[in-house]
Design goal:
Length: 227
């Protein structure tokens, strides 16, 4: 049995990874990270690499056009894209005809879940695995009815949410208690660090990006003009 953790470089996924590593042989734990179509800050990318060397290997997967499935098939052909071409964040918006939003968060599936499923099906065809996610119910009202163990139809496997009743502070405390460093962006005042910025970022986070790393805002501006 393999135990698969989605590792984004954020504190919730890191605490979830530590919870899993504390309970199962390291050889049976697989951590997967998708690069989110080029929408990560270099600090997050570097942190994931450092964590992978110092704590536990992180398998890197990149989204491709094939991860869109049959969605936007006509547009894919019209743009002359191949299934193996990289799926960048702005390319995703071009193919969907819009950028993702809080009410239409298709970026998570196309840029993270689909690449992870593709890798899992290719590397573990026997299906002998469970998935673990650092989901906390206090993050949103939409998660209020989540359970510690659920069935994941998308991956056709059991999905465990060991942190579902934790607070964010508990995640930081847990990681620190095990002597692990966490993403430096948190110490710079950011609340969300997976994407830079995330479509769910608060106004405070957006202001922080514009002040500390204005190139992240300029990146989004270029994408908007392109799309």
């Amino acid at each position: 049995m393999k135990h698969i953790v989605g590792f984004s470089g954020g504190i919730d996924s890191q605490a979830c990874a530590r919870w899993v590593l504390n309970r199962f042989p390291k050889d049976d734990v697989i951590q997967l990270n998708s690069d989110a179509g080029g929408n990560e800050h270099p600090i997050t990318t570097e942190f994931i690499q450092t964590y992978s060397r110092a704590v536990h290997p992180v398998v890197l997967v990149s989204p491709t056009i094939a991860d869109m499935g049959n969605r936007a098939k006509g547009k894919i052909e019209a743009l002359g894209l191949l299934p193996t071409d990289p799926l960048e964040f702005d390319t995703l918006a071009l193919l969907k005809g819009r950028f993702p939003s809080k009410l239409a968060q298709f970026c998570t599936e196309a840029l993270k879940l689909s690449p992870a499923r593709r890798w899992t099906e290719a590397m573990l065809p026997d299906g002998d695995y469970k998935r673990y996610a650092g989901v906390r119910v206090d993050e949103s009202r939409g998660r209020a009815n989540r359970q510690a163990v659920e069935w994941d139809d998308y991956f056709d496997c059991e999905l465990c949410l060991p942190l579902f009743d934790w607070t964010k502070k508990m995640c930081f405390d847990y990681v620190e208690a095990h002597g692990e460093e966490y993403n430096p962006l948190y110490k710079l005042g950011f609340n969300r660090v997976g994407c830079a910025p995330c479509i769910n970022s608060s106004k405070d986070d957006i202001l922080n990006w514009s002040r500390r790393f204005p190139e992240m805002i300029e990146k989004i501006r270029r994408w908007e003009q392109h799309v």
